[in-house]
Amino acid sequence: MNRRAETSPLARLTATFYALRRPAFSILFALLMASSVWMYFQRVMIPHQQNEAVRDDKPRGNLSDLYPRWLGARELLLHRRDPYSAEITREIQAGYYGRVLDPDRPHDPKDQQAFAYPLFVVWLLAPMVGLPFWIAQRLTLIVLVALTVLSVFVWLETLDWSLPFRGKIAWALLTVSCLPAVQGLKLQQLTLLVAALIAFAVIAISRNRLMAAGILLAFATIKPQLLFLLIIWLGIWISADWRSRRKLLWSFGFTMTLLVGASQVLLPGWIREFNQAMNSYYRYTGGGQSLLDVVLTPVWGHLCAFIIVVFFLVLVWRLRSYPASSPQFQFAVSFTLATTLLVIPMFAPYNQILLLPAAMMLIRATMHRPNIGFLSRFFVFVMKLSVAWPFLTAALLLMALPLIPSQVVDKGVGLPFYSTLSLPISVFATLLILKNQLISREVGDRDASCPTLQASAASE
């Protein structure tokens, strides 16, 4: 009787279901969550913005963050025109917004969309300046998607996190469809390129490819505000073992000299014009507020940012002697990127793609060390809720779309963005609280092979 029950069709079906349930569920869940955010942008966010533009007479052109850089690079390389000039700015506005901005129109955007990048960004865009913009736009989208997906696998490798293939695919699906990534892809934001270059540079450092890492980091400085703390940390790290790590500094310095020098030959005085463009950008966008300024007011935000940077310097100084393959170095990189998002004078959700390595470290730590204290559990919960919030609210808005009037849905159109304030703060706080757990993995022989680490330990 028991044998017949065990071999019945129902038993076999149940056994098959449970055998397939976990891998199938992980991929299916990732696909559902990924599609919810993409469909939210297409069916809720963009129609809302289009209706708002019609109602308030707001200009609406290609709205691609690539366009100002592409047009500036094209005009400089092909026609020798200054991309920082007011004339080019007006031409950028005509494409980006559909018309030149009018200060007398109260609903016109404040962002002038000037060419506010270091001039050497034109070397990255040079292969596309001869193409029509619509082709350059689509090529850039494909490249950014590919780089974002590839960076997931690179960070998993860098953090020594061995996952089954389905787990890596789930991470890639969720990453390329998280709100920061989707916003960046919709805008063709070069932050996604910078994030990928950072990922490739860090894995190159961990594999002792210091020359290649320096070159990658130099090109990533097209967004200098995202790199300044990482460069400081790597400078501190290099100083702890100058003889074996100095190639990173020489490679970075040499590449930066080439980029800046070649740009100076192409457009003499561009550094002064770039500084003026950045000052103008901060002025017409409201003073360049950081996330802390938004949360705490500018006065307290500046004070808190100063304290955080000092604390950051003290913490990474203590980790300077560890090799690049150690969990201490991995933590320092993740903590550096998380700190950057708190203190830079720019608050944009797409920058939060830099939190990817920190999120990976924290999720892995909480999976393998579930017995953590109440405070740790609280911040881990806030972090996971902040990550899941855009996916869940986007799905709810999509489900509500055919059931309730569109005017009601419009009132909740910003729901997925509500966690953009809490995510960087919760990730930063959770990294601090779980610091000991994150770096407690034994480094073993790798520590023993590092003479500066031995000297540091002896002095302590």
Q: Can you put this structure into words, describing what you see?
A:
The protein has one domain. Helix content is 72%, strand content 0%. The chain contains 23 helices and no strands. The longest helix is centred in the N-terminal third of the chain and has 48 residues. The protein is globular.
Output mean pLDDT: 85
> Distance between the terminal alpha carbons, to the nearest Å?
70 Å
Tell me the domain tally: 1
Radius of gyration: 24 Å
Summarize the structure.
Helix content is about 70%, strand content about 0%.
Which helices and strands, and how do they pair?
Layout: H1 2-6, H2 9-56, H3 66-79, H4 86-96, H5 121-125, H6 133-158, H7 165-176, H8 179-187, H9 191-206, H10 210-220, H11 224-239, H12 242-266, H13 270-284, H14 291-296, H15 298-318, H16 327-343, H17 356-368, H18 374-400, H19 406-411, H20 422-433, H21 435-438, H22 445-448, H23 451-459
Helix pairs in contact: 2-7, 2-18, 3-4, 6-7, 6-9, 9-10, 10-12, 11-12, 11-16, 15-16, 16-17, 16-20, 18-20
Question: Keywords, please?
Answer:
23 helices; mainly alpha; single chain; globular
